[in-house]
Design brief:
By secondary structure, this protein is α/β, with parallel strands linked by helices. The chain is built from four helices and five strands, in the order E-H-E-H-E-E-H-E-H. The protein has a five-stranded mixed beta sheet with strand order 2-1-3-5-4, covered by helices on one side. Strand 1, helix 1 (21-29) and strand 2 form a beta-alpha-beta unit. The longest helix is centred in the C-terminal third of the chain and has 22 residues, at 128-149. The chain starts with 5 loop residues before the first strand and ends with a helix.
Length: 150
């Protein structure tokens, strides 16, 4: 981890259209002198990436039924584990499990996410609404990081 102990984590799959957006945002931030990691893993695998970081910026897509291209930003907090299987835990559940087993969890995790198109097609490019949101996502991600560095 770098001296400022910040991590940018881009999550997504570059074979699944809009799901690649987290990877693209992370790659755009790579030249900013930050620790940047990308991957397709989520759930409990998130713990492997964030343990030991003080602050984490997680960039990803989401499908909540909202308007594709809509960007949201929020703090990720541990949540009650409700999943019927460890294979399906969400990010908040993973954080709760990590804390429960005594892992060194980040003090803060901020998420910058964009609403993706509900359909996911193998080999597709980004949809137009998500492609249009990409520069704004990068800007918002940089704003989060700059706020942490002040």
């Amino acid at each position: 981890m770098s001296g400022n102990n910040l991590l940018v984590l881009g999550i997504g799959n570059d074979l699944l259209g809009d799901d690649a957006v987290g990877l693209l945002v992370a790659e755009a931030l790579r030249g900013d002198g930050l620790v940047v990691r990308t991957g397709v893993r989520s759930g409990l695998a998130l713990l492997d990436e964030v343990v030991g970081a003080r602050r984490v910026l997680l960039v990803d897509s989401q499908a909540t039924g909202g308007q594709p291209g809509t960007i949201c930003e929020f703090s990720l907090e541990p949540s009650v584990v409700r999943s019927p299987s460890a294979h399906y835990v969400g990010y908040g559940e993973a954080l709760a499990i990590g804390a429960a087993v005594g892992l060194e969890m980040p003090e803060e995790i901020r998420v910058v996410a964009v609403e993706r198109a509900p359909e996911v097609y193998l080999g597709a490019d980004l949809s137009e609404p998500v492609r249009a949101a990409l520069p704004t996502m990068v800007e918002r991600a940089r704003n989060v990081i700059q706020g942490w560095l002040r």
